[in-house]
Amino acid sequence: MASLSLEQAAQRLMDCYQGWFDISPCPEEAPLTARMDFHAHSSQYVLSKKAVLWEAESHEYVYLFQMPHLTLETYRACEALVYQEGMSRIQPGPGHMYTYLTALFLCQTCDEQARRALKACRRHKSFRFAYWGWMDMHTGLAELEKERVTANFSGRKSAKNLSHALFRPLPSRGKGR
What we know:
- The protein is α/β, with parallel strands linked by helices.
- Strand 3, helix 2 and strand 4 form a beta-alpha-beta unit.
- Helix 2 runs parallel beside helix 3.
- The two termini are 24 Å apart.
- The mean pLDDT is 89.
């Protein structure tokens, strides 16, 4: 299978996310390509919407970075950007359940140190002993040249999404469907 270009990979990934996420392209903020936001609010009430039994808010902020070669310094700078900007967007409170900060990297090649640092990323924060929810940071890396996906422990689902979106052939839309 022919390797995708960075632009094709980014577009394919954004197409996969667009059904559930609000996508904001960031062409002037290289290497940041796009921010993708997801918000969900769930609640249960009795007889009237004023008698709320429980409510929960869930958020995910995905930052998509693309570059020809990922170095350890670039990875560290991007991780810090995601953490600082993401933490400033979190509003913990009684209804907040969780927020995921996700850093996705698309590159042709990657330094081994950067890949190991991405895989070792462990950022988690509880708000009021998790009574007001928590934050967890997910990371994912797609090396297009080797068709390899790497993620940290929390980002296993992100790795699965990257792999399906970028390295599987697109389904045909023939008459049989």
